[in-house]
């Protein structure tokens, strides 16, 4: 495997703009009419939100991640995808490198809503 090229350099101020938090995936459902998209219902402790992800074809059973904690960008502008509004982005590892993607997860359970960084 050859890793994807490193992206352009950013400043610490750029990095501080990202709000990355741990959430627990409560449910995974297909997005009607979409070949690649699933909608995740995610708990961030004080609230839940829907996050759409293109992971449907990356896993034999996308529901296998229900109950798992993962890292999410929670301050990404909302975006409608196949009629479903997405309020964030799940971090996965491997997609840009052509490796079967896996979730970016905390090494031990932490409270939902815990910030990264």
Strand element count: 9
Structural class: mainly beta
Largest sheet: 5 strands, antiparallel
Number of domains: 1
* Topology order in helix (H) and strand (E) letters: HEEEEEEEEE
Report the radius of gyration as a whole number of Å: 14 Å
Strand percentage: 25-35%
Which features would summarize this protein structure in a list?
single chain; 117 residues; mainly beta; 5-stranded antiparallel β-sheet; 1 helix; 34% strand
Give the helix/strand layout:
Elements: H1 12-16, E1 20-30, E2 38-43, E3 48-53, E4 69-73, E5 79-81, E6 84-86, E7 89-90, E8 92-93, E9 102-103
Antiparallel strand pairs: 1-2, 1-4, 2-3, 4-7, 5-6, 8-9
What does this structure look like?
It is a single chain. This protein is mainly beta. It has one domain: OB fold (Dihydrolipoamide Acetyltransferase, E2P) (Beta Barrel), CATH 2.40.50.140. It is built from 1 helix and 9 strands; from the N terminus they run αβββββββββ. The strands form 3 sheets. A 5-stranded antiparallel beta sheet has the order 3-2-1-4-7, with no helix packed on it. A two-stranded antiparallel ribbon has the order 5-6. Strands 8-9 form a two-stranded antiparallel ribbon. Strand 2 and strand 3 form a beta hairpin. The protein is globular and about 40 Å long. The two termini are 28 Å apart. 18% of the residues are buried.
In brief:
Helices cover 4% and strands 34% of the residues. By secondary structure, the protein is mostly beta strands.
């Amino acid at each position: 495997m050859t890793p994807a090229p490193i992206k352009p350099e950013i400043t610490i101020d750029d990095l501080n703009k990202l709000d990355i938090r741990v959430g627990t995936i409560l449910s995974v459902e297909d997005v009607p009419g979409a070949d690649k998209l699933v909608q995740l219902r995610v708990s961030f402790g004080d609230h839940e939100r829907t996050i759409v992800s293109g992971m449907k074809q990356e896993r034999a059973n996308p529901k296998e991640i229900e109950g798992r904690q993962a890292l999410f960008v929670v301050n990404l502008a909302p975006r409608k995808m196949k009629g479903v509004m997405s309020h964030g982005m799940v971090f996965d590892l491997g997609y840009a490198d052509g490796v079967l993607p896996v979730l970016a997860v905390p090494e031990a359970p932490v409270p939902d809503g815990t910030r990264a960084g």
